[in-house]
Protein backbone atom coordinates (compact mmCIF):
# COMPACT_ATOMS: atom_id res chain seq x y z
CA UNK A 1 0.00 0.00 0.00
CA UNK A 2 1.13 3.55 -0.70
CA UNK A 3 2.50 5.32 2.37
CA UNK A 4 2.01 8.77 0.90
CA UNK A 5 5.70 9.48 0.33
CA UNK A 6 6.61 11.97 -2.38
CA UNK A 7 8.90 10.28 -4.94
CA UNK A 8 12.60 11.08 -4.80
CA UNK A 9 14.10 13.22 -7.57
CA UNK A 10 14.99 11.10 -10.61
CA UNK A 11 16.76 11.76 -13.90
CA UNK A 12 14.22 11.52 -16.72
CA UNK A 13 16.71 10.07 -19.20
CA UNK A 14 17.08 6.95 -17.02
CA UNK A 15 13.36 6.19 -16.87
CA UNK A 16 10.57 4.93 -19.11
CA UNK A 17 7.41 6.90 -18.35
CA UNK A 18 3.92 5.41 -18.49
CA UNK A 19 1.40 8.18 -17.95
CA UNK A 20 -2.32 8.01 -17.48
CA UNK A 21 -4.27 10.80 -19.19
CA UNK A 22 -7.45 11.95 -17.38
CA UNK A 23 -6.55 13.28 -13.95
CA UNK A 24 -2.81 13.02 -14.69
CA UNK A 25 -2.21 15.11 -17.82
CA UNK A 26 -5.71 16.56 -18.26
CA UNK A 27 -7.88 17.98 -15.46
CA UNK A 28 -11.08 16.06 -14.74
CA UNK A 29 -14.18 17.75 -16.18
CA UNK A 30 -17.88 16.82 -16.28
CA UNK A 31 -18.02 16.03 -19.99
CA UNK A 32 -15.35 13.55 -21.21
CA UNK A 33 -15.48 15.19 -24.66
CA UNK A 34 -14.54 18.55 -23.12
CA UNK A 35 -11.31 17.30 -21.48
CA UNK A 36 -8.14 19.08 -22.63
CA UNK A 37 -4.46 18.46 -22.06
CA UNK A 38 -2.99 20.75 -19.40
CA UNK A 39 -0.69 23.25 -21.22
CA UNK A 40 2.20 22.60 -18.81
CA UNK A 41 1.77 18.86 -19.33
CA UNK A 42 1.85 19.34 -23.11
CA UNK A 43 5.19 21.15 -23.05
CA UNK A 44 6.68 18.66 -20.55
CA UNK A 45 5.64 15.78 -22.82
CA UNK A 46 7.62 17.27 -25.70
CA UNK A 47 10.73 17.48 -23.53
CA UNK A 48 10.10 13.99 -22.18
CA UNK A 49 10.12 12.48 -25.67
CA UNK A 50 13.49 14.07 -26.37
CA UNK A 51 15.13 13.26 -23.03
CA UNK A 52 13.96 9.65 -22.80
CA UNK A 53 14.68 8.98 -26.49
CA UNK A 54 11.04 8.00 -26.83
CA UNK A 55 10.75 5.76 -23.78
CA UNK A 56 7.30 6.86 -22.78
CA UNK A 57 3.71 5.91 -23.45
CA UNK A 58 0.30 7.29 -22.58
CA UNK A 59 -1.62 4.49 -20.86
CA UNK A 60 -5.31 5.29 -20.78
CA UNK A 61 -8.84 4.01 -20.64
CA UNK A 62 -9.60 6.16 -23.67
CA UNK A 63 -9.46 4.81 -27.22
CA UNK A 64 -6.49 5.49 -29.52
CA UNK A 65 -8.67 7.78 -31.62
CA UNK A 66 -9.64 9.89 -28.61
CA UNK A 67 -6.05 9.98 -27.36
CA UNK A 68 -4.65 11.18 -30.68
CA UNK A 69 -7.25 13.96 -30.78
CA UNK A 70 -6.45 15.04 -27.21
CA UNK A 71 -2.68 14.93 -27.68
CA UNK A 72 -2.49 16.55 -31.15
CA UNK A 73 -0.17 17.73 -32.59
CA UNK A 74 1.89 15.26 -30.53
CA UNK A 75 1.78 11.70 -31.81
CA UNK A 76 2.96 9.47 -28.99
CA UNK A 77 3.27 5.77 -28.20
CA UNK A 78 -0.13 4.82 -26.81
CA UNK A 79 -1.88 2.14 -24.82
CA UNK A 80 -5.56 2.86 -25.30
CA UNK A 81 -8.79 1.20 -24.15
CA UNK A 82 -7.19 0.05 -20.87
CA UNK A 83 -4.36 -1.73 -22.71
CA UNK A 84 -6.24 -3.36 -25.59
CA UNK A 85 -4.96 -0.99 -28.28
CA UNK A 86 -1.17 -0.59 -28.24
CA UNK A 87 0.70 1.65 -30.69
CA UNK A 88 4.47 2.01 -30.83
CA UNK A 89 6.43 5.18 -31.58
CA UNK A 90 6.84 4.11 -35.23
CA UNK A 91 3.05 4.00 -35.59
CA UNK A 92 2.92 0.19 -35.72
CA UNK A 93 0.36 -1.63 -33.62
CA UNK A 94 1.18 -4.46 -31.27
CA UNK A 95 -0.64 -7.61 -32.24
CA UNK A 96 -3.91 -7.56 -30.31
CA UNK A 97 -4.50 -10.56 -28.04
CA UNK A 98 -7.16 -13.09 -28.98
CA UNK A 99 -10.09 -11.78 -26.97
CA UNK A 100 -13.15 -12.78 -28.85
CA UNK A 101 -16.34 -11.57 -27.25
CA UNK A 102 -19.36 -10.05 -28.90
CA UNK A 103 -20.19 -6.95 -26.83
CA UNK A 104 -23.45 -6.21 -28.71
CA UNK A 105 -25.77 -7.70 -26.12
CA UNK A 106 -23.90 -5.95 -23.30
CA UNK A 107 -24.06 -2.68 -25.20
CA UNK A 108 -27.82 -2.99 -25.74
CA UNK A 109 -28.46 -3.58 -22.04
CA UNK A 110 -26.21 -0.72 -20.93
CA UNK A 111 -27.73 1.60 -23.55
CA UNK A 112 -31.25 0.95 -22.24
CA UNK A 113 -30.08 1.55 -18.66
CA UNK A 114 -28.26 4.78 -19.61
CA UNK A 115 -31.15 6.04 -21.68
CA UNK A 116 -33.65 5.54 -18.85
CA UNK A 117 -31.44 7.61 -16.49
CA UNK A 118 -30.05 10.13 -18.95
CA UNK A 119 -26.48 8.89 -18.43
CA UNK A 120 -23.63 9.17 -20.89
CA UNK A 121 -22.64 5.84 -22.43
CA UNK A 122 -19.26 5.63 -24.14
CA UNK A 123 -18.39 2.79 -26.50
CA UNK A 124 -14.71 2.02 -27.06
CA UNK A 125 -12.82 -0.93 -28.51
CA UNK A 126 -13.28 -3.74 -26.01
CA UNK A 127 -15.02 -1.58 -23.41
CA UNK A 128 -18.32 0.17 -22.70
CA UNK A 129 -18.28 2.96 -20.11
CA UNK A 130 -21.22 4.27 -18.13
CA UNK A 131 -20.60 7.81 -16.83
CA UNK A 132 -22.46 9.21 -13.79
CA UNK A 133 -20.41 12.29 -12.88
CA UNK A 134 -23.39 14.52 -13.67
CA UNK A 135 -25.87 12.12 -12.05
CA UNK A 136 -24.18 10.81 -8.88
CA UNK A 137 -27.46 9.37 -7.58
CA UNK A 138 -27.16 6.75 -10.32
CA UNK A 139 -23.69 5.61 -9.14
CA UNK A 140 -24.72 2.61 -7.04
CA UNK A 141 -27.14 1.24 -9.63
CA UNK A 142 -24.56 1.76 -12.40
CA UNK A 143 -21.86 -0.07 -10.46
CA UNK A 144 -24.27 -2.89 -9.65
CA UNK A 145 -25.26 -3.25 -13.30
CA UNK A 146 -21.64 -3.37 -14.48
CA UNK A 147 -20.73 -5.88 -11.75
CA UNK A 148 -23.68 -8.05 -12.68
CA UNK A 149 -22.88 -8.01 -16.40
CA UNK A 150 -19.20 -8.77 -15.82
CA UNK A 151 -20.01 -11.64 -13.46
CA UNK A 152 -21.86 -13.46 -16.24
CA UNK A 153 -18.80 -14.33 -18.29
CA UNK A 154 -15.11 -14.89 -17.57
CA UNK A 155 -14.28 -12.91 -20.70
CA UNK A 156 -15.60 -9.75 -19.07
CA UNK A 157 -14.28 -7.52 -16.29
CA UNK A 158 -15.88 -4.73 -14.25
CA UNK A 159 -13.74 -1.61 -13.87
CA UNK A 160 -14.90 1.20 -11.60
CA UNK A 161 -13.05 4.46 -12.17
CA UNK A 162 -13.76 8.06 -11.23
CA UNK A 163 -17.53 8.43 -11.60
CA UNK A 164 -17.47 5.84 -14.38
CA UNK A 165 -18.08 2.10 -14.46
CA UNK A 166 -16.95 0.06 -17.41
CA UNK A 167 -17.44 -3.44 -18.77
CA UNK A 168 -14.11 -4.34 -20.39
CA UNK A 169 -12.62 -7.47 -21.87
CA UNK A 170 -10.78 -9.49 -19.23
CA UNK A 171 -7.16 -10.50 -19.66
CA UNK A 172 -5.70 -7.14 -20.60
CA UNK A 173 -5.05 -4.08 -18.46
CA UNK A 174 -2.60 -1.22 -17.99
CA UNK A 175 -0.11 -3.66 -16.43
CA UNK A 176 -0.03 -5.95 -19.46
CA UNK A 177 0.32 -2.85 -21.67
CA UNK A 178 3.32 -1.59 -19.68
CA UNK A 179 4.95 -5.01 -19.84
CA UNK A 180 4.52 -5.11 -23.63
CA UNK A 181 6.21 -1.72 -24.08
CA UNK A 182 9.06 -2.73 -21.75
CA UNK A 183 10.07 -5.51 -24.21
CA UNK A 184 10.92 -2.89 -26.87
CA UNK A 185 14.55 -1.73 -27.28
CA UNK A 186 13.83 1.93 -26.41
CA UNK A 187 12.32 0.93 -23.06
CA UNK A 188 14.18 -2.25 -22.11
CA UNK A 189 17.06 -0.77 -20.09
CA UNK A 190 15.05 2.05 -18.54
CA UNK A 191 13.39 2.11 -15.13
CA UNK A 192 9.59 2.00 -15.54
CA UNK A 193 7.62 4.76 -13.81
CA UNK A 194 3.82 4.53 -13.93
CA UNK A 195 1.83 7.63 -12.95
CA UNK A 196 -1.93 7.76 -12.50
CA UNK A 197 -4.78 9.00 -10.36
CA UNK A 198 -7.37 6.25 -10.53
CA UNK A 199 -8.15 2.69 -9.51
CA UNK A 200 -7.69 1.69 -13.15
CA UNK A 201 -3.98 2.56 -12.84
CA UNK A 202 -3.27 0.00 -10.12
CA UNK A 203 -2.31 -2.78 -12.57
CA UNK A 204 0.21 -0.38 -14.11
CA UNK A 205 1.69 0.54 -10.71
CA UNK A 206 2.09 -3.15 -9.84
CA UNK A 207 3.74 -3.95 -13.20
CA UNK A 208 6.19 -1.03 -12.96
CA UNK A 209 7.17 -2.04 -9.43
CA UNK A 210 7.64 -5.69 -10.36
CA UNK A 211 10.04 -4.59 -13.12
CA UNK A 212 12.24 -2.56 -10.76
CA UNK A 213 10.53 0.80 -11.15
CA UNK A 214 7.79 2.48 -9.20
CA UNK A 215 4.21 3.65 -9.23
CA UNK A 216 3.22 7.23 -8.45
CA UNK A 217 -0.36 7.76 -7.34
CA UNK A 218 -1.92 11.20 -7.69
CA UNK A 219 -4.49 12.07 -5.04
CA UNK A 220 -6.18 10.12 -2.26
CA UNK A 221 -7.45 6.55 -2.14
CA UNK A 222 -5.99 3.13 -1.50
CA UNK A 223 -3.11 2.26 -3.81
CA UNK A 224 -0.29 -0.22 -4.25
CA UNK A 225 1.87 2.59 -5.65
CA UNK A 226 5.10 3.16 -3.78
CA UNK A 227 4.80 6.94 -3.98
CA UNK A 228 2.10 9.57 -3.90
CA UNK A 229 1.57 13.26 -4.61
CA UNK A 230 -1.54 15.25 -3.72
CA UNK A 231 -2.39 16.87 -7.05
CA UNK A 232 -1.73 16.80 -10.79
CA UNK A 233 0.18 20.08 -10.38
CA UNK A 234 2.46 18.44 -7.78
CA UNK A 235 3.17 15.65 -10.25
CA UNK A 236 3.98 18.12 -13.05
CA UNK A 237 6.35 20.01 -10.75
CA UNK A 238 8.13 16.75 -9.88
CA UNK A 239 8.30 15.81 -13.57
CA UNK A 240 9.73 19.21 -14.50
CA UNK A 241 12.50 18.67 -11.92
CA UNK A 242 13.27 15.23 -13.41
CA UNK A 243 13.65 16.91 -16.80
CA UNK A 244 15.98 19.53 -15.37
CA UNK A 245 18.00 17.71 -12.69
CA UNK A 246 20.65 20.46 -12.54
CA UNK A 247 17.93 23.02 -11.89
CA UNK A 248 19.27 25.31 -14.61
CA UNK A 249 15.84 26.26 -15.99
CA UNK A 250 14.38 27.21 -12.61
CA UNK A 251 17.40 29.46 -11.98
CA UNK A 252 16.30 31.56 -14.93
CA UNK A 253 19.47 31.06 -16.95
O1 LIG B 1 -7.11 5.97 -17.92
P1 LIG B 1 -7.55 7.40 -18.08
O2 LIG B 1 -6.77 8.15 -19.11
O3 LIG B 1 -7.59 8.12 -16.76
O4 LIG B 1 -9.04 7.30 -18.62
C1 LIG B 1 -10.07 6.89 -17.72
C2 LIG B 1 -11.40 7.36 -18.24
O5 LIG B 1 -11.23 8.76 -18.55
C3 LIG B 1 -12.37 9.43 -19.05
O6 LIG B 1 -13.30 9.56 -17.98
C4 LIG B 1 -12.78 10.29 -16.88
O7 LIG B 1 -12.48 11.65 -17.31
C5 LIG B 1 -13.65 12.41 -17.72
C6 LIG B 1 -13.15 13.77 -18.20
O8 LIG B 1 -12.45 14.44 -17.19
C7 LIG B 1 -14.64 12.52 -16.56
O9 LIG B 1 -15.80 13.22 -16.98
C8 LIG B 1 -15.03 11.10 -16.08
O10 LIG B 1 -15.86 11.19 -14.94
C9 LIG B 1 -13.76 10.31 -15.73
O11 LIG B 1 -14.08 8.98 -15.37
C10 LIG B 1 -12.93 8.70 -20.25
O12 LIG B 1 -14.17 9.27 -20.64
C11 LIG B 1 -13.10 7.20 -20.01
O13 LIG B 1 -13.40 6.55 -21.25
C12 LIG B 1 -11.78 6.63 -19.51
O14 LIG B 1 -11.91 5.24 -19.26
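^ Assign residues to that structure.
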Amino acid sequence: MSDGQVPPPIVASEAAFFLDLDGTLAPIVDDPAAARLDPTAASLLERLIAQTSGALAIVSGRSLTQLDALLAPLRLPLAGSHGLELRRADGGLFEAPELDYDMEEVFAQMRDFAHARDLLLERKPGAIALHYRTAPAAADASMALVDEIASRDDNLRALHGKMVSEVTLAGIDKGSALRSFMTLPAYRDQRPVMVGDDVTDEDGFAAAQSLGGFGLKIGPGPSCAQYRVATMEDFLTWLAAALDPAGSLSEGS
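The chain is about 30% helix and 20% strand.
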